[in-house]
């Protein structure tokens, strides 16, 4: 039998898109039992499709079957990324598949929109690894249009685009992202543009203290204080800046050289082609080309999760499938495997503690801190004396990367 609270968010989603199905284009008028619609337009279109497929949302069992399929597809996309990086031992995949009750609940039982956004994001990352940067940016923007947490990956993606194409070269990719947002939101922008932007991209939205997983040990007045929020934002920006300067940017040149055309950079900062990225990635933690891209994207997201104003239970899916990579992308001795598995277990325990407690939220921060320390010290650049290998086909840049 279905738990009594399984239908809460699903029914609210269906109520929100039902208004659009009935012709309402004023975003401020789209509401459900849990409050107003606060997701961008991509969410509306995807869940409108589910609304019609499931008989106006009445067939929840069918919706759960569909989300079970989404869960399997998500695992396939994640496994493909991990196989390309070749960093995580095979036994860890057992924990990713079978050891998280919370993730199974988020996908198949609660029917949240977070898994939809993350599945599209992992598809975009697969395209980045194949050098389909334009298609990857299109799907990245589509994932953002389902839920804005995908923006936590955006700083890492921007760094990769600058590294690969330079400032002028990455502008078309950014235009792809922006144009899709405009196209998806156009019906609502034409009716009430301010209402759409304020509702779907509300970065100042307050969270309820009773649902927080990570800040339970704070007094509620501190949790809701704007100064605390500003401090977390500054910590997030500082973390991104430090990682960009000292971990993502392995060249000895100034980071501002990323703004130049890759062809005009010195040989010490080669273009992010298949041949040259292997040389550049070897300077940091012996990461291969795919692992280097994934490291930047996953660490960018993880920094955002660590500095989040609040983490609700469904937010676990934001970074659950990235944790094994973050733990094993650094050099690992045989004796270090067990502590890493233990960290995964403690994080899982924290997310399965309901309601959250002072102990569970503090433990979660300790685990996050340990992972950050490992990423910082485990990916420190090592000096190299060799020069990058010349490409056999220096002018043969992949057309699909254009």
Automatic annotation (TrEMBL):
The chain crosses the membrane at residues 37-53, 65-82, 111-129, 135-162, 174-198, 227-245, 277-298. It is found in: Endoplasmic reticulum membrane. It comes from the Eukaryota. One of its GO terms (cellular component) is endoplasmic reticulum membrane. Pathway: Protein modification; protein glycosylation. Residues 383-402 are annotated as: Disordered. Keywords: Endoplasmic reticulum, Glycosyltransferase, Membrane, Transferase, Transmembrane, Transmembrane helix. One of its GO terms (molecular function) is dol-P-Man:Man(5)GlcNAc(2)-PP-Dol alpha-1,3-mannosyltransferase activity. Its main location: endoplasmic reticulum. It holds the Pfam family ALG3. It catalyses: an alpha-D-Man-(1->2)-alpha-D-Man-(1->2)-alpha-D-Man-(1->3)-[alpha-D-Man-(1->6)]-beta-D-Man-(1->4)-beta-D-GlcNAc-(1->4)-alpha-D-GlcNAc-diphospho-di-trans,poly-cis-dolichol + a di-trans,poly-cis-dolichyl beta-D-mannosyl phosphate = an alpha-D-Man-(1->2)-alpha-D-Man-(1->2)-alpha-D-Man-(1->3)-[alpha-D-Man-(1->3)-alpha-D-Man-(1->6)]-beta-D-Man-(1->4)-beta-D-GlcNAc-(1->4)-alpha-D-GlcNAc-diphospho-di-trans,poly-cis-dolichol + a di-trans,poly-cis-dolichyl phosphate + H(+). It is a multi-pass membrane protein. Its EC number is 2.4.1.258. The keyword Secreted does not apply. Dol-P-Man:Man(5)GlcNAc(2)-PP-Dol alpha-1,3-mannosyltransferase that operates in the biosynthetic pathway of dolichol-linked oligosaccharides, the glycan precursors employed in protein asparagine (N)-glycosylation. The assembly of dolichol-linked oligosaccharides begins on the cytosolic side of the endoplasmic reticulum membrane and finishes in its lumen. The sequential addition of sugars to dolichol pyrophosphate produces dolichol-linked oligosaccharides containing fourteen sugars, including two GlcNAcs, nine mannoses and three glucoses. This is Dol-P-Man:Man(5)GlcNAc(2)-PP-Dol alpha-1,3-mannosyltransferase. It comes from Illadopsis cleaveri.
């Amino acid at each position: 039998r279905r738990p009594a609270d399984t239908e809460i968010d699903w029914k609210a989603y269906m109520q929100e898109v039902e208004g659009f199905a009935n012709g309402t284009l004023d975003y401020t008028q789209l509401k459900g039992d849990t409050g107003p619609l606060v997701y961008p337009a991509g969410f509306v279109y995807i869940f409108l499709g589910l609304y019609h497929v499931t008989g106006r949302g009445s067939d929840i069992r069918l919706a759960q079957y569909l989300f079970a399929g989404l869960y399997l597809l998500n695992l396939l996309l994640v496994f493909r990324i991990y196989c390309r990086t070749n960093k995580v031992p095979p036994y860890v995949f057992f924990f990713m598949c079978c050891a998280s009750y919370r993730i199974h609940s988020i996908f198949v039982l609660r029917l949240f929109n977070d898994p939809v956004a993350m599945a599209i994001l992992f598809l975009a990352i697969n395209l980045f690894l194949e050098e389909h940067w334009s298609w990857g940016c299109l799907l990245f923007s589509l994932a953002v249009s389902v839920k804005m947490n995908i923006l936590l990956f955006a700083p890492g993606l921007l760094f990769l685009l600058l590294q690969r194409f330079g400032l002028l070269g990455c502008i078309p990719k950014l235009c792809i992202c922006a144009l899709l947002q405009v196209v998806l939101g156009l019906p609502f922008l034409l009716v009430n543009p301010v209402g759409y932007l304020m509702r779907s991209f509300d970065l100042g939205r307050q969270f309820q203290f009773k649902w927080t997983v990570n800040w339970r040990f704070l007094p509620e007045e501190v949790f809701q204080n704007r100064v605390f929020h500003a401090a977390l934002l500054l910590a997030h920006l500082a973390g991104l800046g430090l990682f960009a300067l000292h971990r993502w940017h392995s060249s000895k040149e100034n980071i501002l050289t990323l703004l130049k055309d890759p062809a005009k950079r010195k040989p010490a900062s080669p273009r992010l082609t298949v041949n040259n990225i292997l040389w550049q990635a070897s300077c940091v933690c012996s990461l291969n080309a795919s692992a280097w891209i994934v490291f930047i994207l996953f660490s960018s997201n993880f920094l955002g999760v660590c500095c989040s104003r609040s983490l609700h239970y469904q937010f676990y899916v934001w970074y659950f499938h990235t944790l094994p990579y973050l733990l094993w992308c650094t050099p690992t001795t045989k004796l270090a495997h067990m502590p890493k598995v233990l960290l995964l277990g403690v994080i899982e325990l924290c997310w399965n503690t309901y309601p959250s407690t002072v102990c569970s939220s503090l433990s979660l921060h300790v685990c996050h801190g340990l992972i950050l320390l490992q990423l910082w010290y485990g990916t420190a650049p090592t000096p190299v004396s060799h020069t990058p290998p010349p490409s056999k086909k220096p002018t043969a840049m992949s057309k699909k990367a254009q």
